[in-house]
Design brief:
The protein is an alpha/beta fold. The protein contains 17 helices and twelve strands. Strand 5, helix 8 and strand 6 form a beta-alpha-beta unit. Helix 1 runs antiparallel to helix 3 and helix 3 packs parallel to helix 12.
C-alpha cells in the first residue's frame, strides 16, 4: 500500500488485494490446513525456505491480510495477530526475553498487563520493575539492570489515562540498548503513531476500538523494523544466533527487518498457539474499515461528557486529556493533536459508595468488563479489572477506590449526558 495514502484510505484499501475474478471483500479462509502437490514443497515451508500456508496455527490468508492492514496503519514493516491483547503483550515481550531477564514497565498499565508482567512472567523467571511514567529520565533509568531487555508502556494508560511522553521513554530505552514497546490500544493509529516518536514495537488489543463493536477478542503486534537487534546480539541471541528448531536459521540474517515478527510467528505461534480464528479476523477487518469515523465520534462525544462531568457539583475530579485543566493536556496536544480516545475516568465526592450508587442507577450505559466499542459502558476498576491489586498497587496504577471508568460510545451525546445526569441525581 502506498504510504502516500491517508489513514482513512488505508483502513479501507490495505491488506487484501484481490486479483482478477477474486472476491472484492476479504474472504474467510476457514481451513486448518492447505494442500501441496509434493512432499518437497511442504518440506521447504517447514524449513522456512519458502513462504506459504500449511497450517492455520502459524499463518492463515485471512489473518495475514488483516495483519498487513494494521502494519500499514501503524507504519510498520510487519505484524502478527494474536487471540487477545493479553497474548499480544505476552508474545511481544517473550519473543525477546527468557528466564533470567528483566523488563521495566510503566506502573499505570492495564491491570491485566500488570498481573502478566508482575506475577505470571515472574514464574517464567522474567522479573519486572514498575516505574512512574511521569518520573524523571534519571529516576526511570535507575530501574534498569544489565539484564534488562525491554521498556514497556501504554500511549494512554488504562484506566488512569496517563498520556505517555513517548520521546522521553524512547530516549531512555535506546540509551540502555533496549527496544521500547508501546501498547497503542486506546489512541489507535488514527490518533497516535508511536513509531514516529521513537517507539520500536507497538501492540494492540484489537478487541477495543479496532473492532469497535465488541464482537471479537484479538490482539496485534507490529514491528517498526527500526531496532538494530544485531547491534545488541549478545542480548537478543534468540534473533541473532541459530535457532536449532529450524536447522540453525538466524532470523536477523535470513529475514532482515522482519526478523522479530517472523520469529514470533514461526516459533511462538508454533509452540504456544495463541492464534485468532479467521472468522474473528474477518470481523476485525470490518471494524477497521470505519475506525477513523468512529474514533472521531468517540472523541467528540467524550469531550462533551468530560466537560459536563467537570462542571458537575458531585464530581470531585475528571481525568481526560482533552480538558485544558488536565495534567496531560500538553502531552496530548503534542502526540495526539486530533484527540485522545473515548475513555474518561472520574471520581465522585462520595467515594466508592457513591460510585456504586451512580453506576447502578444508569439506564443506557451498561456495566461491562469492556471499553471502546460503539456502546457507552461503565466499570469500577478497583472492584473489577484491578480487583487483585492491594491498596499500594492501586495507588501506583493511578486507581483510587472511587474511580469510575466511563467508555463513551457513538450514541448522541445529549442522550449519554442525560443518562449520566439522572444517575448522578440518585447519589
Amino acid at each position: 500500500m502506498s504510504n502516500q495514502y491517508k489513514i482513512e484510505t488505508k483502513c479501507i484499501q490495505s491488506g487484501w488485494k484481490p486479483k482478477k475474478g477474486e472476491p472484492r471483500v476479504l474472504p474467510i479462509y476457514q481451513s486448518t490446513t492447505f494442500k501441496y502437490d509434493t512432499t518437497d514443497e511442504m518440506g521447504k515451508l517447514f524449513d522456512l525456505e519458502e513462504e506459504g500456508y500449511f497450517y492455520t496455527r502459524l499463518q492463515n490468508p485471512t489473518n495475514d491480510a488483516v495483519a498487513a492492514k494494521i502494519a500499514d496503519l501503524e507504519g510498520g514493516v510487519a505484524a502478527v495477530l494474536t487471540s487477545s491483547g493479553q497474548a499480544a503483550n505476552f508474545y511481544a515481550v517473550f519473543n525477546i526475553c527468557e528466564a533470567g531477564d528483566h523488563i521495566v514497565c510503566a506502573s499505570t498499565v492495564y491491570g491485566g498487563t500488570f498481573n502478566l508482567f508482575g506475577v505470571t512472567m515472574k514464574k517464567l523467571g522474567i522479573d519486572c520493575t514498575f516505574v512512574d511514567a511521569d518520573a524523571s529520565e534519571e529516576e526511570i533509568a535507575r530501574a534498569f539492570r544489565p539484564n534488562t531487555k525491554v521498556l514497556f508502556a501504554e500511549t494512554i494508560a488504562n484506566p488512569a489515562l496517563v498520556v505517555l511522553d513517548i520521546e522521553k521513554f524512547a530516549k531512555i530505552a535506546h540509551e540502555h540498548g533496549v527496544p521500547l514497546i508501546v501498547d497503542n490500544t486506546f489512541a489507535t493509529p488514527v490518533n497516535c503513531r508511536p513509531f514516529e516518536w521513537g517507539a520500536d514495537i507497538v501492540t494492540h488489543s484489537t478487541t477495543k476500538y479496532m473492532d469497535g463493536h465488541a464482537m471479537q477478542v484479538g490482539g496485534a503486534i507490529v514491528d517498526s523494523g527500526n531496532f538494530d537487534w544485531e547491534a545488541y546480539g549478545d542480548k537478543y541471541h534468540g534473533l541473532t544466533l541459530p535457532d536449532e528448531s529450524y536447522h540453525g536459521v538466524v532470523y536477523t540474517k535470513k529475514f532482515g527487518k522482519k526478523a522479530y515478527i517472523t520469529k514470533a510467528t514461526v516459533q511462538l505461534m508454533r509452540d504456544l498457539g495463541s492464534i485468532p480464528a479467521p472468522m474473528n479476523c474477518f470481523l476485525l477487518n470490518v471494524g477497521l474499515e470505519t475506525l477513523p469515523l468512529r474514533v472521531a465520534r468517540h472523541c467528540s462525544n467524550a469531550q462533551k461528557v468530560a466537560e459536563f462531568l467537570n462542571a458537575h457539583e458531585k464530581v470531585s475530579h475528571v481525568n481526560y486529556a482533552g480538558l485544558p485543566t488536565d495534567k496531560y493536556h500538553e502531552l496530548a496536544k503534542k502526540y495526539m493533536p486530533n484527540g485522545t480516545c473515548g475513555v474518561i475516568s472520574f471520581e465522585l465526592k462520595g467515594g466508592r459508595e457513591a460510585a456504586v450508587k451512580f453506576m447502578d442507577g444508569l439506564k443506557m450505559a451498561a456495566i461491562v468488563t469492556h471499553v471502546a466499542d460503539a456502546r457507552t459502558s461503565v466499570l469500577h476498576p478497583a472492584s473489577h479489572t484491578h480487583r487483585q491489586m492491594n491498596d499500594q498497587q492501586l495507588a501506583e496504577a493511578g486507581v483510587s477506590p472511587g474511580m469510575i471508568r466511563l467508555s463513551i460510545g457513538i450514541e448522541h451525546p445529549d442522550d449519554i449526558i442525560e443518562d449520566l445526569s439522572q444517575a448522578l441525581d440518585l447519589v
